[in-house]
Each structure stands twice: as structure tokens, then as C-alpha cells.
Amino acid sequence: MSKRSLASFAAGLIFGAGLLISGMTRTDKVIGFLDLSGDWDPALMFVMVGAIGINALAYRVMAGWSKPLLDDRWHVPTKTVIDRRLVFGAGIFGVGWGISGFCPGPAVVASAGGGSTLVFVAAVLAGMLLHAGYARVARAYNVKGSPLTNAPGTRTDRVERCS
Amino acid sequence: MVLDIGLSLIGGALIGIAASIVLLANGRIAGISGVVEDVLTLADDGLGPKAAFVAGLLATGFAAAAFAPELITTTVVRTPTALVIAGLLVGVGTRLGSGCTSGHGVCGNARFSPRSLTATGIFIAVGFVTATVVGSLFGGVL
Description:
Chain A is mostly helical. Helices cover 60% and strands 0% of the residues of chain A. The radius of gyration of chain A is 18 Å and the shape is globular.
């Protein structure tokens, strides 16, 4: 296993542990946070506070480095334009998150336990393939007037893809 | 409640540390929807580390399933139809919007990316509205 993969594996372990400890892997807890009609549980707000606080420090460190420790360049997104894809995509994701109580990371972690969470994750993967397939077709035919074709034929339209 | 907030902060800090490792070691954003899609489609861009990241996530899930199953939901209280529709929406939405709670919510916001701040505001607001509508109009049963 390469050093990069080892670092990513360790990060995956720590990320998963953080999701488990905070309660993000329990849909009842997430729904208790998102559903304002019942007994509102605001605790999950602090997951993002903790995560953003620490990660913002890392970006301060990054600013003083010419390249990352294990790679020869940065792969951080640089796109700043707010387009229809971003707005529609975030809205569609919000509906799915609000119905299920699962966003992708916690769903992947919880899917290790099987059950109907696996059905959900399978649907997420199917949705991703649907998007990838449609985006490919839309780019190939350069479909106009579709929120998928703001930046046809480029990889920069998918800049927040990460690892 | 105080305990829950404490656990949220600790869990969040761990997530922040994990995202910082990915950033400072590999120079990348820890965005799970993007990583999962790239592993799924075998995209030729740092596939090894991405697969290793997903393996790490799954390893914690298997550990939880074995030793602390109360920490993970394996039976979502939704009809199969609602669950499949929600999953499809999460899959399509996160890729159309180039990120989810991790890529935009944790990583992008930490560097004040205008795209991430916008996306996070939208998916959290829509998430609140959706869950509240399901909770109040459908009694939480869907």
C-alpha cells in the first residue's frame, strides 16, 4: 500500500470514528436535528463546528506550504462560480437527506451493518451512476438548456471530487 | 444534552483531523460523495487512496456493527419506496452539486469557498424543511 493510500486509510478510520461518536450514523438522531416540528435536538450542529474549526487550521498550515507532504501538487478545487448545477444539486440532496436522515459518509459507514441501510446505499450508488451516465450523454451531444451542461466536456465541472 | 454536544464536538474534531490529514498529506479534499463515485466508476485519479479511504470508513462500520451496533442505523424507519427515492436523490444531488456534507459542509466551508457556503446553506435549509414536513404532515412515517 502506498504512503498516500495509508494516509487515506487512516483518515477514513478517523473520519468514520468521528461520524460514529457524534451520532451522524443514526438516522433517528439526524432526523431529530432536521425535524423542527418535534423535540428538536440541536447537538449535531456542533459536529460541523468542530470539524470546520480543525480543518480551517489545516488550511492555514497549507497556505505556508508549497505542496502537500505526499504529492507534488495541490488538488483543491478552485472553481468559484455558483451555477444551476450547484443550486439544484444541493437542493435535491437536501430532500433525500431530509427524508432518510442519511448523507453519503454516515450511510457508507452504517451500511457495514447491513439491513435496509444497504438498500439506501445501493440507491445512492445507482443515483451516482445515473448522473455519471447522463452527464456523459449530455456532454457527448452537448445538450443545451440542461443544468448538467454548464461546462460541457471538461473535468472542471466536477471539481469538488475529492479524496 | 451537554453530553450530546460534547460528543458532537469530539466527533466533529475527529472528522476535522481526518480531513486535515487528507489535505496536508495528499493535497485533496475529503469529500465522500466524490470519493465514492470515483471508486464506483474506477476513475483514474488517485483511485488507490480513494479506495483506501472508503475501506477505512467501512472498517469503522464493521467495528461498530460488531461491538456497538446501537451506534449505526441498519433499519431505516421508512418504506422501501421512500428509502430508494431518498437514496437516488442523495446520489444524483450530491454529484450534480459536486459535494455533500463532507466536501462542501466540512472541507469547502473551512476555506470559505463561496460554492460550498451556498451549497451548504441550501442542503441544510432544504433538509430542515423536508424533515419537518415529513415529521409534521406525515407523522414521521413515509
